[in-house]
Design goal:
Helix content is about 50%, strand content about 15%. The chain is α/β, with parallel strands linked by helices. Helix 10 crosses helix 13. The chain is globular. The termini are far apart.
Length: about 375
C-alpha cells in the first residue's frame, strides 16, 4: 500500500466516523494524516492529503496541526497573479479557452456574413473574448455586426472587459456593440431576459460560459442550474459552448464527494508538477487556489457550497432536459500543442485530458 492509499483510507475512515458523530476519533485520524504528510515532505499526494485533512478538520470543528497550517499558508501570490497563472499556465485551463474559441469561430464562419450576437455568461475581464476577436481578425471571418452581451456580477471586471473588447474590436473594422448586465445570471429578471432576447436583432446568437454555471445552487426547492438552462434555451441560440471541470462534486454523500474530489485534484496536482511552472508558482496554486476549492467541496455546509462541479455527462443530461440538442461542432482554428495535456474529441464534448483522464470538458449544444 502506498502512502497515498494509506492517507485516502484514513480520510475515508474519518468521514465515516464524522457521519456517525464520532468527532474525537475522526479528528484524531485527520490530525494523523496531516502529521504524516508533514513528515513525508509534502509531495503531490502528501500535500493533497494535508489539504483534505485540514478541510475535514474545519468541517468537524477541529484544527489542523500548527506545523501543517504554517506550511499550507507560506506560499502566497497576489490574487490577480494567481488567476493569470491559472488562465495562461495551467495546461488544462489554458487549453480550454482556445478550444471554446475554435468552436465559436467555426460557427461564426458558418454564419455566412450574418450579424453575430454572443452572450457571454461570466465574462470576467474579457480575456477569452479578446483572444476570440483576434482569431476572428486572423481568420478573416468578420461579421458585418458583432454584439457582445456580457453577464458579470463584478462591476470592475465588467467595465474592464468592455474597455478591452471595444479596443480589440477596432481592428475588425465592423460595427461593434457591447451591452453589460452587472448581475449573476440566476438573478436576471424578466425585463433583463427580454432585453437580451431583443438584442439578437435577426442575426445568429451564440452563447458561451466558462467555469461559471457550476456555482449556481442546486437546492431541492429550486434547481438554479436547470432553471437557468431553460431560460437560455428560450433564447434559441445556434450554438451554446460550456466549459466546466469534469468531476461530480454535486453529490450529497460526503464520502463519495471526497473520493471524486481526491481523484480530480490528485491528477491536477500531478499536472502542475509536470508543467513548466516554478515550484513556488505550483505550490501557490495548490495551497492558495485549489485548496480553497477543496475547502468549499469538503468543509462547507451543503447549503453554502458553491463549487458544485458536474461531469460532462451530467451537463449533457441537463441540456437535454432543458430542450437543447448536444452536438459535435467543428473547430474553426488549430489548437495550441501542449507537452502536458491533450485535447480529445468525445463526440458532444472536447476533453482536456491529463494522464488519459478528462479534467475539463468543453461541451456543445444547439437549440
Amino acid at each position: 500500500m502506498t502512502a497515498a492509499d494509506a492517507a485516502l483510507g484514513d480520510l475515508c475512515r474519518a468521514v465515516r466516523e464524522l457521519s456517525h458523530g464520532a468527532l474525537d476519533s475522526a479528528q484524531a485520524h485527520l490530525r494523523a494524516v496531516a502529521n504524516r504528510a508533514q513528515e513525508q515532505g509534502y509531495g503531490a499526494s502528501s500535500l493533497l492529503a494535508a489539504i483534505f485533512a485540514s478541510a475535514l478538520l474545519t468541517r468537524s470543528g477541529g484544527r489542523a496541526p500548527a506545523r501543517a497550517n504554517l506550511y499550507l499558508t507560506q506560499f502566497t501570490l497576489p490574487q490577480i497573479e494567481l488567476f493569470t497563472l491559472l488562465a495562461t499556465r495551467v495546461p488544462t485551463i489554458a487549453l480550454s479557452s482556445p478550444v471554446a474559441n475554435a468552436l465559436l469561430l467555426g460557427e461564426i464562419a458558418r454564419a455566412g456574413g450574418a450579424p453575430v450576437t454572443l452572450l457571454e455568461l461570466g465574462i470576467g475581464t474579457g480575456r477569452q473574448l479578446r483572444a476570440l476577436l483576434a482569431e476572428i481578425a486572423r481568420n478573416g471571418v468578420i461579421p458585418p455586426r458583432l454584439t457582445i452581451i456580457a453577464v458579470e456580477p463584478d462591476r470592475a471586471s465588467l467595465d474592464c472587459a468592455e474597455r478591452a473588447l471595444r479596443e480589440a474590436a477596432r481592428a475588425l473594422g465592423t460595427e461593434f456593440g457591447f451591452v453589460g448586465f452587472c448581475r449573476c445570471v440566476e438573478h436576471l429578471g424578466a425585463d433583463e431576459w427580454a432585453a437580451i432576447a431583443s438584442l439578437r436583432a435577426g442575426g445568429r446568437l451564440l452563447m458561451n460560459e466558462a467555469f461559471a454555471l457550476h456555482h449556481l445552487p442546486n437546492a431541492r426547492a429550486r434547481d438554479a442550474k436547470q432553471a437557468t438552462l431553460r431560460r437560455l434555451r428560450q433564447l434559441a441560440p445556434e450554438l451554446f459552448v460550456l466549459t466546466e471541470p469534469h468531476v461530480d462534486h454535486d453529490v450529497a454523500d460526503l464520502e463519495r464527494r471526497m473520493l471524486h474530489c481526491w481523484r480530480h485534484f490528485d491528477l491536477a496536482f500531478r499536472m502542475l508538477d509536470a508543467s513548466d511552472l516554478t515550484l513556488e508558482q505550483a505550490m501557490a496554486l495548490k495551497t492558495a487556489f485549489f485548496a480553497r476549492e477543496i475547502d468549499d467541496v469538503l468543509a462547507q455546509r451543503e447549503e453554502l457550497r458553491s463549487e458544485r462541479h458536474e461531469t460532462a455527462d451530467m451537463w449533457l443530461e441537463r441540456l437535454v432536459r432543458a430542450g437543447f440538442r448536444p452536438c459535435r461542432a467543428a473547430l474553426g482554428s488549430p489548437i495550441p500543442e501542449s507537452s502536458v495535456a491533450t485535447v480529445r474529441d468525445h463526440g458532444c464534448y472536447w476533453g482536456i485530458d491529463f494522464g488519459a483522464k478528462t479534467q475539463v470538458a468543453v461541451i456543445c449544444a444547439r437549440s
